[in-house]
Amino acid sequence: MSDQKIVFLGTGGTIAGTALNALDHTGYTAAQVGVHDLLTALPGLKAGVGTGRYVVEQVAQLDSKDMGFDVWVKLALRVAYFLEQEDVQGIVITHGTDTLEETAYFLQALLGPAKPVVLTCAMRPSDALAPDGPQNLLDALVVASSATGCGVTVVCAGAIYGADDVQKIHPSRLNAFSAVDAGPIGFVEQGRLRLLRDWPHAQVNEMASGGLLVSQLADASWPRVEIVMSYAGADGTVVRALLKAGVQGLVVAATGNGTVHQDLETALVLAMQQGVKVTRATRCAEGRMLPGGNDALPAAPGLTPVKARIALMLGLMRAAPKSR
Ligand code: ASP
Hints:
The chain has helices at 35-40, 45-51, 69-84, 100-111, 133-145, 206-209, 214-219, 237-244, 262-273, 305-319, and strands at residues 5-12, 54-62, 88-94, 116-120, 151-156, 159-162, 167-168, 177-178, 186-189, 192-195, 225-229, 249-254, 277-282. It has two domains: 5-195, Rossmann fold, CATH 3.40.50; 215-319, Rossmann fold, CATH 3.40.50. By secondary structure, the protein is an alpha/beta fold. The protein has an eight-stranded mixed β-sheet, with helices on both faces. It has a three-stranded parallel β-sheet with strand order 11-12-13, with helices on both faces. A two-stranded antiparallel sheet has the order 7-8. The longest helix has 16 residues, at 69-84. The protein is built from ten helices and 13 strands. Aspartic acid is lined by residues 13-14, 30, 63-65, 96-98, 121, 123.
């Protein structure tokens, strides 16, 4: 175990952010400090970087609100590469909080890793008076080093969440994430794990990716899949505009147990008849849709709209004829 490596992949975010004023937790610039510098600033970690026990790579440096497919592909390729190395025990990814749940779900659906892949973040910039990133990094390292750890998880403010369940639920407080009614997998307390339930399954999520290989992803073109929301007065105009723009998939963020405004539903059914893949996900913050409601449109129970979009994109890419 002692010669096993931990890989740190940096992508930016507030954890790598800096501010002009150490008390400013909102007016800072994300993605300014390299992951190598974040690690070597931490007591105890500098030595590990120096000896090669920790492998450190800067995959990207961006505010995760600007996350895009190019970075996802680059990240997935590096994660897949390191997962295959026998001497790698686990991977820590530093990431912004804004789209962290999307990247986590994307990696879990695509790779379903048997080793721990831990995304961590911060709500305060690295040079804040009391930054939260250093402790989150140390906690993520505990999870990535766990011999029993498995699957893609998110570590923030001492809690461990599964990629399928995690959502950012608060715009500013330090514990900004929740797995809502699924609950956290466990906690990191004083460097020790206290587990409450199983790690995410070590298998590719067939519903989401249908066995799409990370190598295929590098050559694939990403389908245009957009999210539309059902709300009072939603009349389908957006759907008609998206059809004109060549949309290939639509996720409807449905009300309640998957209900959709009748005028929006009419537009979505028409879109389906024109070959567009449509799926429903509830816009409710908690719970999962139960069967027996709207059957006119397929459903993605248990997925939030942003995760249902990723599942639909991966499914469409897998179904697409291969260019080579
Ligand atoms: N906008 C930042 C990001 O997602 C927010 C954060 O990291 O907390 O990169």
